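Q&A FORM
Asked by: J.P.
Topic: structure of Phage portal protein, HK97 family

PROVIDED:
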Amino acid sequence: MAFRLFSRQAEAAPVMEKKARAASGRVAALAAAPGRAIWSARDTATLTKAGFIGNPVGFRAVRLIAEAAAAVPLICQDAARRYETHPVLDLLRRPNPAQGRAELFEALYGQILLSGNGYLEAVGAGAGLPAELHVLRSDRMRVVPGADGWPVAYEYAVGGRTHRFDMTGAPDPVCHIRSFHPSDDHYGLSPLQAAAVAVDVHNSASAWSKALLDNAARPSGAIVYSGPDGQGNLSAEQYERLTVEMEMHHQGARNAGRPMLLEGGLDWKPMGFSPSDMEFHQTKQAAAREIAQAFGVPPMLIGIPGDATYANYAEAHRAFYRLTVLPLVGRVAAAVAWFLSEHLGAEVDLRPDPDQIPALAAERDQQWRRIGEVSFLSDPEKRALLGLPPLAEG
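REPLIED BY: S.T.
REPLY: Here is the structure written out as tokens.
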């Protein structure tokens, strides 16, 4: 059924449609109605395409967090000691033949940031640690809940086939790491979903800028026709000729600045808005700042001007690690440690090592000095405050 909202035939057409088709027609008409904002879909694939692949702010924010988090050194320890060498560390150092530690964790963090969910598959799991670890795409995974609401399986669809991971046995074949979602029991909420409106605004602003550049970076206007004896209507042939000449000779970047020759009572009346009226550039910067804030990245680190929240770049860098990177790494490392402990048969702990992060060196030096100068604490208590395991006897 074709919608001709502005034609006379649409007024006289009889309404002989089914209820479902009429409802869908009203939705389509409202979506296409002038003056209404049209938002992109909120599924993972569409958000990834619009907010990461097609948006420089979202792309840089995700890459900045994922690369910084993947580069944070991890500490492996248990209740008795800290390990310099351990089978868990060896597995994470080379999780599969195609990826190293940094590539695996960068993909895992990227999936969590883009979809709110991260899936880590254990391959070749027998007695002991798995032979390989692989990150699975979140948009291909589906949770299968049981009668009690807890997941009993995961279904991974790829290449027209579906692979089922059974979660009723032990150890689990898949580690599911998800962000907090207040209204979903099985899937997490990604920062990209919270920033979806700002992403649409930023992308629309970029498209508008491109359209202005293609149109010689000038606003549009109107061609007014004043015929003889006050006649103001063009014939069909005259209208068609005028439209073709405008498209061929006066639109597009290649015709920028080309003078317009008007004849036969035609007059050009500019009708565009000035940049001060539109506040176009400020709107785009505000949308970019909202995207960065949704991901927890100080706008200063992405190069967004006009942000005076932080005194300098170093303070913004420290806040980025304290408030965004370290909480993410700590949560993911704890989930991976518990997942691998089930396969290993012994509990181990993985946690980020802030002492090896250059951006936090000054703060860590102050903490070590402050705890070291305290006289009423014993050495075991000081080690516990610094997150160190107790010394082995002897």
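FOLLOW-UP: The chain has three domains: 8-38, 41-215+278-356, 220-252+262-271.
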